[in-house]
Amino acid sequence: MVLDERKYMILKAIIDDYIITAMPVGSRTVSRKKGVGFSPATIRNEMSDLEELGYLAQPHTSAGRVPSDKAYRLYVDSLLNSEELTVEEKKRIEDYIARRSGQVEDVIRAAADILADATQYTSVVVAPRIQSLRIKRVQMVPVDENTALMIVVTSAGIIKDALISIPPDMSSENLYSISEMLTRELKDHTLSEVRQIFARVFRDMSMNRRLLGGVMKVMEEKLVEDAPEDIVIGGTTKLLNYPEYSDIEKAKNFLTLFENKDRLAGMLKRAGGMEITIRIGRENEIEALQNCSLVTATYRVGNNASGTLGVIGPTRMNYRRVVSMMEYMGEVISKMLSGGNE
Amino acid sequence: MVLDERKYMILKAIIDDYIITAMPVGSRTVSRKKGVGFSPATIRNEMSDLEELGYLAQPHTSAGRVPSDKAYRLYVDSLLNSEELTVEEKKRIEDYIARRSGQVEDVIRAAADILADATQYTSVVVAPRIQSLRIKRVQMVPVDENTALMIVVTSAGIIKDALISIPPDMSSENLYSISEMLTRELKDHTLSEVRQIFARVFRDMSMNRRLLGGVMKVMEEKLVEDAPEDIVIGGTTKLLNYPEYSDIEKAKNFLTLFENKDRLAGMLKRAGGMEITIRIGRENEIEALQNCSLVTATYRVGNNASGTLGVIGPTRMNYRRVVSMMEYMGEVISKMLSGGNE
DNA sequence: CGTTAGCACTCACTTAGGTCGAGTGCTAAT
DNA sequence: ATTAGCACTCGACCTAAGTGAGTGCTAACG
User: Fold this and answer.
1) In Å, how far from its chain's centre is CA A310?
2) Is residue A42 classed as helix, strand or coil in its secondary structure?
3) From B141, which residue of chain A is nearest by alpha-carbon distance?
4) Considering the entire predicted model, what is its pTM?
């Protein structure tokens, strides 16, 4: 069923109002809005229809109406000719992110902070999945007699380093030359190809079998398999400022969500792929988010890898602003992380 | 004024009860406790005295009494013949921490988690101050044409790495030999001595002036000066489970505290030095903590560096348990971080 | 004289009833 | 089709009364 012009306008007016006030909207309020030339009574009739259609709900009989998830969905699907950001805002974003050295972690962190700050909602940023990044260099640095630090450099910058144990008689020079060899072999391959390459190379290399075995194990565990997702959260407490979270129980539920990053990551990943995704209220699978909306965007690193940006806010969030924000952030981050060294 | 035996016993009984229930304690409740052979009336008289002395307070006339900060202070100062942990608990702590590779960051993180989990309060762990650690090795690894990753290894393990820019014509071998040179020069010196050493070495090394200048700058900025403290928080939302935080405003204040890690770090640092410190209620400088207690402990890394553990809970926290917990944790972490490679 | 029983008193908390007002749905007039 | 009018609903807010845990004081007791 398609809404006629007037119903649509009224619905929009209600949503717009509710987004700001978080209070049920009554017919009088709507009729007073400029551009609406009808009396409260007429509005009431329409509102009644809209309620029947599932776009509005009444918290109780004699209260105004509140938009339903379905209403937001409609709103979002249609009204989103995303509002442009002002030049100042764009500049601010770029500056803030560009100040980072370009190391993945830093950029991610900065992105989360600025997203939370600019939207006043909670933000989540997932680091790019690294399996499909191309290796540029492998280097092991001795730390003490039994341990070395292994660093893998990819096209997107440094991948989180890992400690591995080395045979006690291994010299620093030896380690260096093995690193060189590894770099030679693995260069330009993706991390997910490491296993096959090792299988091939291993045959010729019986001498350093133990060390190389260790290297591969670490790469597999830490880098290839779905390791604990690298995920950063900004503005955790931002949502506490909104009246829908004045209930301590809800707040607790919400905050606890962030202590289990894996679940969060899973959720975001499922949303991934699309350029922009919006999950409104019940559309979220995680219970604690069912009175929130989640907006996600994907950014790319090079040609293969990608990560996810997310903003979590009340269902009555300012979708326009958030979406345009995310679109722009996605661009900037992609440029930042792919740029220069591809 | 020293409390007589009986007053003391009654005060202790009240505190013990209040720690568990978080409700004002009445005379009847106290008199019913085993070991207390007096009628409510007698207790009342004593309680009245204790109130006059500043150890108890009444939320309102016809409520029971609540211990004051002063009472906790007395309690803490005297009753703390710290209760031993059970063998299982000790084992659990050790296991949990020992599973970590020994990299500082991991240990810190693990410590925060287990502290929060075991106490059910919020925990804070500050990484060891690194200025006074001795350098074991300096290594630069090329990342791309213009950038290298600099790694400084100290006696406590790896110190957070930093990106520095390098001249475009610098070869990988060249970088390696410079690293070797740096290691030679800086080995066994503390990070705070770097500046003088550089001043001395610089004269001889006009060729790589720019690179070395960069190295020193990074070391100074990131490693020596009071860089943004490396600090980790565990169980952020734990306190929300206690009734004293059922007020959303207080909760918000409290949680916001953790978004500014520098302030937290400052606070903890000020407490540092002592083996165990306890700040009760108003004794805390930060306003948001004035109805909390903060227990801190210091751990050592090698002979010079040290870091801080902290637990934040309601003033009615279980001091005994927390203190013994922290004492043991301090030991374990010190052993963990100093051990093996000193 | 320290201890205790007794009693009047206080005061937060709960419950019930009462008013207020924003908002509704329906009906009848325009 | 629109709107004015009106009875109705129901949460929010206020007040009053009742309840009970706890107190302080006083007088009696061993």
Assistant:
1) 3
2) helix
3) A139
4) 0.85
pLDDT: is B28 or A1 the higher one?
B28
Angle at A133 between CA A127 and CA A134, to 5 degrees: 150
Tokens 């003490």 label which residue?
A144
The gap between A243 CA and D5 C1' (Å) is 36
Tell me the CATH architecture of domain B131-225: 2-Layer Sandwich (3.30)
CATH architecture of B5-79: Orthogonal Bundle (1.10)
Per-domain residue ranges for chain A? 5-79, 87-129+229-339, 131-225
Helix or strand or coil: residue A257? helix
Please name the fold of domain A87-129+229-339: Beta-Lactamase (3.30.450)
Task: Divide the 342 residues of chain A into consecutive groups of 10 and give the mean pLDDT of each group.
Answer: 84 94 94 86 94 93 93 87 80 83 78 94 88 80 79 74 78 83 86 79 66 77 62 92 86 87 82 80 91 92 82 95 91 78 38
Question: For residue A195, what pLDDT is reported?
Answer: 77
Strand C contact nucleotides, protein CB < 7 Å: 3-6, 9-12, 21-27
Q: How far apart are CA A154 and CA B182, in angstroms?
A: 26
Residues 6+ apart with CB under 8 A from A183: A135, A137, A138, A139
Q: Which two tokens stand for residue B327?
A: 């004492």
Q: Which of A237, A244, A336, A342 to mutate to test the interface with B (most CBs of B within 10 A)?
A: A237
- Mean pLDDT lowest among B58-67, B171-180, B290-299: B171-180
Average pLDDT, chain B: 84
Q: What is the distance between the terminal CA atoms of chain A, rounded to a whole angstrom?
A: 50
CB nearest B248 (choices: A157, A246, A256): A246
